[in-house]
Amino acid sequence: MASVMTGADDASGRAPTAQAWISERRKVWLWAAVAVLVLGYVARGVLPESLYVWPKAYRFPLQTVANDWLDQLLRRTVIFDAPLRMWTRSFGEILGVPMRFIQSALANGWSLMGSGGTSTKIPPIPWIAVSMIFASAAWYVAGLRLGLFTVATFFYYAAFGLWNEAMLTLASVSVTIVLGVVLGLIAGIALWRWPRIEVVVNPLFDIMQTIPPFSYLVPVLVLFGFGPVAALVATMIFALPPMAKATAYALRRVPASVLELSDMTGANFWQQQSKILISTARTDILLGLNQLVMMSLAMVILASMIGAGGLGGEVLKALQSLRFGRGLEAGLAITFMAIQLYNFGHAFATRRPSHDKAAQNWKRRTVALGMVAFAIVLALIIPDFRQVPASWTISTSDIWSHAIVWLNGNLGWFFEAFRANTTFWVLRPLLGTLQGIGWAPAALAIGLACFAMGRPQIALLSTLIIVAISIIGYWEPALITLHLVLAGTLVSLIIGVPLGMWAASSRHVYRVADAVVTTLQTLPSFVYLIPIVMLLGPGDVSGVLAIAIYAMATTIRYVSHALKEVDPGVLEAADMFGATPGQAFFKVRLPLAWPGLLLALNQTLMMAVGMVVITSLIGTRGLELETIEAIAKVQPGRSLVAGLAICAVAILIDRLLTAAAVSCSPSKSRTHRGTA
Amino acid sequence: MQNRRYSLLIATVMSLTVSTGLAAAETAKFQGTVRIPVYNVPDSDFIDYSFGQMLEKAGYRVEFVKIDYTAHFTALEFGDVDLSPAVWGTSKDLIDKTLASGSVKNSGSLGVQTRESWWYPNYVGDLCPGLPDWKALKDPACIKALTTPNSDGKINYLGTPPDFAAYDDERIKALDLQVHITLPGTVGTMVATMQGAIQKKEPIIGWGMTPHWLYGSGQGKFVEFPLFDDKCPTDPSWGVNPNEVWDCALSTGEIVKLYNSEFAKKAPELLRILTNFKLTSDDVAKGISRQDIDGAPPEQAAKEWIDAHKEVWAKWLQ
């Protein structure tokens, strides 16, 4: 919340356009908010302590209530004479059928039990054939470049001994994506048809996107059993909202004339949805698909904890046994898979039906089928092409472990000093300041700041969130989480903003930066944890650094986007009036890009919250620790409550910054931009 | 000659196994797949793979299910895994809760005593001569000797991964200790950090457990806290601090073998094998060190044990 205050402050100081709208009265609110914070901090000894820490005697034990409630729901709820979990599990069985089939075809094979204990095994499809099928499909749909990339990707899996893992992940992720597209489209259409359900659905989506997966691990396990289906459900919770939001957003942008056309041509409901609406809104929906693919692959690691196995399990194992090389190899495999799947899906969705090139199409099809047939023949003749032989695999593990030993030996003093200095000069003072403020002054100040922005509903919401977190006794751990998030965001901004500005300055740099950012975003965050913890040791500094690296990609992307979006006409005008480059940047470009920059800050903070939930695996202690620790103490309800508290913090930050971005918008004409 | 005798022995053992396998097949041998959890923890994985590979040698079909340790209790309760031969008795809450559900039973000890508590390297004993008695940790001179630049003037203590249920916060509060906790996040980091501190001879106390190649070696000792009592976690009046719970060590225990009772009905002979299954602390410590020090995968460590102890496990299968 401190950053919100300074953000609003800077806006009034630096941007003359923004200053215009802040009426004198609103300025008073803002100064009152600052005064409350400062007074609250200074007067801690004088004011009653219960304004700072909620008195223990008046705490509401929501955690215990949630434990009992979950126990009741999961273990004792009976619907039509069958326990609840039987219903959910039968439903899960249906979902599991296609997934198990693909898994058997690609990785496991089938084993059939005959009578009398004889078992026959049908092997999975040979690896060379799988590679060729996917490559041919990619070539047929998207062209030579993706075809070659696909071949390279599949050979990478084989070469690094990740074939089976990659196939398991590919099977579960492809089912997840197909299901996610279907459910996302349905939810998106529903949101578009009946905008009123947004009141319920949008907060639900926010919760689904920000709740740490650990906190719903036990309920999902009980309801869906252990295995790929449970993992599918957990992934869906996380990955569905962006797809649904993007669909609804895209449909809203469909011009009214298109709808009129569909009415005039007499299309029925399904024709209208599938033929006209979806294809008109395709480009925007594809953004949702992109997010769906990225998020499904981001979840594979946590999904491996409840039975998805595959590449995610390899990365997790690498973290647990501190083998960075292995983690990086498996992590890159996930990145390549994400890029391949997204481009394939993109090409498939934007494919144009061509009528005049039938002969050419036929030729392409023949070549594609010929390649597959050739691969199958190859596999039939040479056994090495059926299962990847162990002697063909390579590993870079040794190089990486040598590199880390070398770094520790030669630069150990530097890491030690970095850690100590960051702890002393950044983290401890930050946490101390936050802890000094207390819940009551914080709630009051944020409420006042919201009034300054003219948003009484958000004032009410944020006050409620802070009071609720204090009542259930999570104020202190929430502050620990918040200080990690803020420090991580700060580091990310210090490095990411200049890089983003640089990327916005030229097209070539932008293109390179975009590629790097995409790779960073799809590389599973667990992979960064390994070298960080090996070099810096466990603790808050490592957590902050991991958060910063993870969030930085988003900072760079949004900052460069915001600066590029500034109308070039205005910049030319500034140039004509004789502004120096510095003036043009600080007096024209920056103020105009300000709402976009606030959005960048918002998204960076959201990413930081997303990352903080796993930093407890390298030793941070806040609400994120609570979500895991509670499971070990058999209190799944407590874990869920802690997870929801993290959601609440994230939602609070998001609402405040969105409100700030709207009120800083130079001509107020820029409407609320959404945060999907 | 020596070689020949050796191969003869193997042949005998092999034929014995095969014949017992066949004999079992003639009676009602379990036809399904036995699902055994593994959780990326070196000690448990070694035990789990050893048990599973033994079953495979006996002709059963085994699936090793990769799962989180705490999550596996839920899976066991609802029959999503069948048996778990490597449950540390020190995770008492989870075991008690799972047994209370009625669908999971305990088939007894693996024969390995476990201990989990605070542990310190020997040179730390020189810095703080009152150790291993926990009261030494309250001595100001001792606290001063055990601080590091990062520990805020308190004792530098390396805690446990979040899923351990060590009750350190409660213990520190109840015994009123001046301790700065660093959390490692994972077991791998916990061991690596302790090793790094030992190399640099840093003052440190950390969580430790035996059997283990590091904590069980002569390189250090456990801190002696007041012994665990059933009343300690629930009754504040028990123990040195009359107002707080957990003014004691964690319970020492054994590695126990849990199984789903529905599964045992379907496969009574597997329950018998599970009950027979016993290892020694040395076996387990060696299994861990093969993974942690030599970098072998747990399957490999287990295979080595299976190959070297054929006479031992052949008896359990009869």
TrEMBL record, chain A:
The chain crosses the membrane at residues 28-47, 125-158, 170-194, 214-240, 285-307, 327-345, 366-383, 430-451, 458-475, 481-503, 597-619, 639-663. InterPro entries: MetI-like (IPR000515), MetI-like_sf (IPR035906). Pfam families: BPD_transp_1. Keywords: Cell membrane, Membrane, Transmembrane, Transmembrane helix, Transport. It is found in: Cell membrane. The keyword Transmembrane helix applies. PROSITE patterns: ABC_TM1 (PS50928). CDD domains: TM_PBP2 (cd06261). Residues 162-345, 478-657 form the ABC transmembrane type-1 domain. Its main location: membrane. It comes from the Bacteria. It is a multi-pass membrane protein. Belongs to the binding-protein-dependent transport system permease family. This is ABC transporter permease subunit. It comes from Rhizobium oryzicola.
Automatic annotation (TrEMBL), chain B:
The keyword RNA-binding does not apply. Residues 1-24 form the signal peptide. Residues 33-307 form the ABC-type glycine betaine transport system substrate-binding domain. Keywords: Signal. CDD domains: PBP2_BCP_2 (cd13643). It holds the Pfam family OpuAC. This is ABC transporter substrate-binding protein. It comes from Rhizobium oryzicola.
